Amino acid sequence: MTKTTLVTTLLNLIRDKQARVGVIGLGYVGLPLAVEFARAGFTVTGFDVDPSKVAEINAGRSYIPDVPQAELAEAVQAGRLRATTDMARLADMDVADICVPTPLRKTKDPDLSYVVQALEGVAAALKPGQLVILESTTYPGTTDEVALPMLEAGGLKADRDFFLAFSPERVDPGNPTYLTRNIPKIVGGFGPPSTEAATALYAQIVSTVVPVTSTRVAEMVKLLENTFRAVNIGLVNELAQMCHRLDIDVWEVIEAAKTKPFGFMPFYPGPGLGGHCIPIDPFYLSWKARQNGFECRFIELAGQVNASMPDYVVERVADALNNARKSINGSRIHLFGVAYKKDVSDIRESPALDILELLARRGAVLSYTDPFVSRLKRAEGAIEAISTAEALTSAPDCIVICTNHSAFSWDAVVKSGVPVVDTRNALSGFTAPNIVRLSGRVVAADPAVV
Ligand SMILES: NC(=O)c1ccc[n+]([C@@H]2O[C@H](COP(=O)([O-])OP(=O)(O)OC[C@H]3O[C@@H](n4cnc5c(N)ncnc54)[C@H](O)[C@@H]3O)[C@@H](O)[C@H]2O)c1
C-alpha cells in the first residue's frame, strides 16, 4: 500500500472511531487517557506489566482518583475497555500510545528503561499503517534518536509504513477543572503524515490540539513548561528564606504582587518539590543539554534551592521547639499531609517524606494524618496514619502542615496551642501565637531559665 493510502486508511479508522487504540502503561497518565478514548467510542486495550492493575481494570475498578469509578466500569461493561499484560496483542492495535514512567537514576541521569522496554514490545508487533505515540515526558531527541531506530529495525519506515509522534501529557492530578479532555494537546510528528494522524486521533477526545513541526519541539514544550514551574518555585522558595531573614511575610508580598494585572504570575513557596514531574523533568533537559556541551544554570540552581526546603522546614521546627525550650530530639512531632500535593494520594518525591526522615534522624517521635495515605512504609518500620482528633489528643510538641488537603479543618489545630509550622499558608485566616509561618516575623525566644 502507498504512503497516501496507509495514512488515509488510518485517518478514516480514526474518524469512524474504528481504530483500535492500545495504551501502554496504565498509571496516572495512561488510565485517564484510555478511559477518555473509550468514552469517545473507541475500543481500547490497556497494556501494563503490573497484573494487579490489569485485574482491577478488568473488574471495572478505578485505582486513580481522577478516573471516576462509574466511567471506568461503564467502559469495561460496554466492552470498550479491557486490559492485558500480553504485549503480543499490540499486533491487533492501530494505535500504540506509550505512557510509561521516565524517572531519574540516582545520578540524576534519565532512566529510559521503561520506555525502551515498552518500545521493544511495540517494535516486535509493529505492522504497516500503525501509529505509535510517545507521551512519557523525556528529553528532546528521544523519539527520533531512541524510538525511531528501534521501530525501523524490522525494515518498516516511519511516515512511509508506520507513523510516529510525540505528544506530551499535561495532566494535573487532583485538578477538578482541567481534565484530559479540556487540556490542549501538543502533537509533533516525525513528518507531516505522522502529525496529521496523531492530530486527528487526539481531536477525537481533546477540545484543542496544537500541532508543532517536529517531535523535538513537542518534547521541548513539555520541558519548558515544567522547567518554568521548577525555576519560578525555586525563586519563590529562595524569596521565602530571604523574607524570613528580613522579617517579612512572603505570602503577604505575593498576594499584593499578584494584584498587578500584567507581567506577574504568582508562584508559592512550600516545603519543597514533589510528584513525578517538576522535581524530575528539568533534569532530563539539563542532562541532554550537557551532552551537547551546554550547562543549564537556572535548572541546577532552582534544583538546589528547592531541594534545600525540607532542611529549611526542619530549621523552622527547631525554632518553634526552641521557643518552648524543647529540642527535636525526643519531641513528638505530628505531620498533617504527606502526599506531595493537595487532594492526591501520590507520595512520589513528596517533601513530607524528606522532612519526616530529617526529623527522625534528629530523634523526633513522629506521627501523621493524611486522609489519602493510610500507611507509610519506612526502613525503620511502617507508620499508620491517625485521625486529627487522635493527633490532638496525643498533645504533640509540634505540628507541621506539609500538605493542605481540602478535608483538613484547622480550627482545633490552632486552638490546641501546639506550635504549628505552616509550610503551605494553610492558616492564612488565623492569627495565633502558636503559628510559625514559613517566613515572616521571627519570634525571639524567652531567655532560658537557669
Ligand atoms: N503523573 C503526572 O502528573 C504526569 C503528568 C504529565 C506527564 N507525566 C509523565 O507521564 C509518564 C507516566 O507517568 P505516570 O504518572 O502515569 O506513571 P505511573 O507510574 O503512574 O504509571 C506508569 C505505568 O506504566 C506501567 N509500566 C511500566 N513499564 C511498563 C512497560 N514496559 N509496559 C507496560 N506498562 C509499563 C507501570 O506498571 C505503571 O502502571 C511519565 O513520563 C511522567 O513523567 C506524568
Task: Describe the structure in brief.
The protein has 450 residues and is of the alpha/beta class. It is built from 14 helices and 15 strands.
Number of strands: 15
Shape: elongated
Sketch the major β-sheet: 8 strands, mixed
What is the H/E string? HEHEHHEEHEHEEHEHHHHEHEEEHEHEE
Main structural class: alpha/beta
Note the gap between the termini: 91 Å
State mean pLDDT (0 to 100 scale): 95
Break the fold down into its secondary structure elements and pairings.
Elements: H1 3-15, E1 20-24, H2 30-39, E2 43-47, H3 51-58, H4 69-77, E3 81-84, E4 95-98, H5 113-125, E5 131-134, H6 142-152, E6 163-166, E7 185-189, H7 192-203, E8 209-212, H8 215-246, H9 250-257, H10 281-291, H11 297-323, E9 332-336, H12 351-361, E10 365-369, E11 375-376, E12 383-384, H13 388-393, E13 398-401, H14 411-415, E14 420-422, E15 435-437
Parallel strand pairs: 1-2, 1-4, 2-3, 4-5, 5-6, 7-8, 9-10, 9-13, 13-14, 14-15
Antiparallel strand pairs: 6-7, 11-12
